[in-house]
Known about the structure:
The structure is a homodimer of 274-residue chains.
Chain A: H1 16-34, E1 44-48, H2 54-62, E2 67-72, H3 75-86, E3 94-98, E4 111-117, H4 126-135, E5 137-147, E6 154-156, H5 160-175, H6 186-192, E7 196-207, H7 212-228, H8 231-236, H9 242-254, E8 261-272
Parallel strand pairs in A: 1-2, 1-4, 2-3, 4-5
Antiparallel strand pairs in A: 5-8, 6-8, 7-8
Helix pairs in contact in A: 1-2, 1-7, 5-9
Amino acid sequence: MRGASKPESxxxxxxxxxxxxxxxxxxxxxxxxxxxxxxAPGDRVLEAGCGVGAQTMHLLARSPEAxxxxxxxxxxSLAAARAAVGGLPAAAQxxxxxxxxxRLPFPSASFDHVFVCFVLEHLACPEDALRALMNVLRxxxxxxxIEGDHGSTFFHPHSEKAQRTIECLVKAQAHGGGDANIGRRxxxxxxxxxxxxxxxxxxxxxxxxxxxxxxxxxxxxxxxxMVEGAREVSLRLGLVDEKAWEEGIADLKRxxxxxxxxxxxxxxxxxxxx
Amino acid sequence: MRGASKPESxxxxxxxxxxxxxxxxxxxxxxxxxxxxxxAPGDRVLEAGCGVGAQTMHLLARSPEAxxxxxxxxxxSLAAARAAVGGLPAAAQxxxxxxxxxRLPFPSASFDHVFVCFVLEHLACPEDALRALMNVLRxxxxxxxIEGDHGSTFFHPHSEKAQRTIECLVKAQAHGGGDANIGRRxxxxxxxxxxxxxxxxxxxxxxxxxxxxxxxxxxxxxxxxMVEGAREVSLRLGLVDEKAWEEGIADLKRxxxxxxxxxxxxxxxxxxxx
Lengths: 274, 274
């Protein structure tokens, strides 16, 4: 749901509202997505496509003695990530580099682990990205991939208009070469490039009025905010007209009211190189 | 996904292939759906719409000293349930009765707990069913509701044809007055009838080639078998033609191959009466 290595294909843009959305999202989701990611003291970890550092902070909190190298192609995102991490006690464990996922400035076997979160979804050829990342992993090193799947979204009350509005985001991302429904295919994707011990763990988000933190933090501030962020590109690409867009967003917001519910699935995959 | 109290609206029919499918389904899903349902020794539990007893056996295994009363409107299903439970060591803890959910032959406050699984989805007015069940619960008694949500289904490779075939099942169920997408609305449904402490816990099923038990037990033997069981009614209702049906089923089976994945969400709700 964020930072790609190809700015031209990053459907969400790079504004400050987007940065706020990403921070809200990461806080709400951190426990769900990252609770089982721990790197040992001294382990060398590459975070590829770190964006504004939203996930970096949570990785660091869980592995304060690992050594992180965080790369992104976008200088402004990296500056934000540096600022976000700079104030933390473990900041010295992290180095940042402006770098392209497809032309990594590291020798083979430079890292014990690779971590990529909300990155592959934006790439036209995620297989090539995985192969590039595998090349900088030491033998036996691990890779962790976290992606969403917008096609997993369902909610109550059901609304075709809202579903079509979400579909705009999927189509806009596809227009840039990405796949917003990539989560469901992580297992075959990682298997096909030759990774071993591929294990996929779905992370289901469910929000109803008994879970106000999820309604506010996820349904409203993460998901609906993300869809709303694609308004301009969706209209520009002619995927929808203004009226249908507004109606779809209104219906989506209906799912965040007291008698609504909202469901979304993330996928977390882990694997090893030989 | 099974036994309703209204035979005329039970989309899956009552044949023996259906009974085999239900047993396979219950075995595969038992741990996921029932692991956290335990009733204390002596607790009086009403299982409403027990069907062929597929869930009864798992309830009994987890609460061998509770006293179960299992009802269904369909005599042939009840006979199968009696036969299935009869051989178990705790069989004496279970009594069966042919009874209608909407005209329960029990005085008020007869039970400490009510359990309903894959029943509300088949009813035109699940609110009335819940009210009838609440009436036979003692004050403070609990109700547990488990339902699927066919609209939660997604898979890889994605196929519109397969999605439309699943949609036939949803429409056929709606034709009988039911709602195959009821899972997502359990929270508002249970809240609206006046139940307290309503908590909904989604149970996500994910199958890929690293989880052969789920591919075989769920994707193939539960879900696809269920969809295939709705072929006749779907054709009869004119929801689809034979060619489109066969293509949809073929695409659905594609998701059970080595590079496919399959996802489905059940919802388990618990609540109390005042």
